[in-house]
Write a structure and sequence with these properties.
single chain, mainly alpha
Length: about 100
């Protein structure tokens, strides 16, 4: 199978231009503390209302109570992971996400 001859340097296509770096993420995506805190507060308020309804009216603690506790726990876990990533970025860890301040 014959090889095609190499083109002279003048006929080679130039490399594509370098892409500009992506824009910085908006503050709401880099620091979502407010939505996390508001969401956790909402789950906590719901759990408190359901406990009060149990104590006052004898309403059983059903799936809504356990859902509110899971929401509160997952929100706390998400906040802890976010803080851990941010502290790793500030420390300069090689495996940390970039762009977090």
């Amino acid at each position: 199978m014959p090889h095609s001859p190499r083109r002279p340097a003048a006929q080679r296509t130039p490399p594509p231009p370098a892409r500009p770096p992506p824009p910085a993420l908006p503050r709401t995506l880099v620091a979502p503390e407010l939505p996390i805190v508001v969401g956790c507060a909402g789950w906590l308020i719901l759990a408190a209302i359901l406990v009060i309804a149990r104590l006052v009216g004898g309403r059983p603690l059903d799936v809504w109570f356990w859902t509110s506790l899971c929401g509160l726990g997952l929100g706390g876990l998400g906040y802890a992971v976010m803080r851990w990533q941010r502290s790793a970025a500030r420390r300069g860890s090689r495996s940390a996400q970039t762009g977090l301040a």
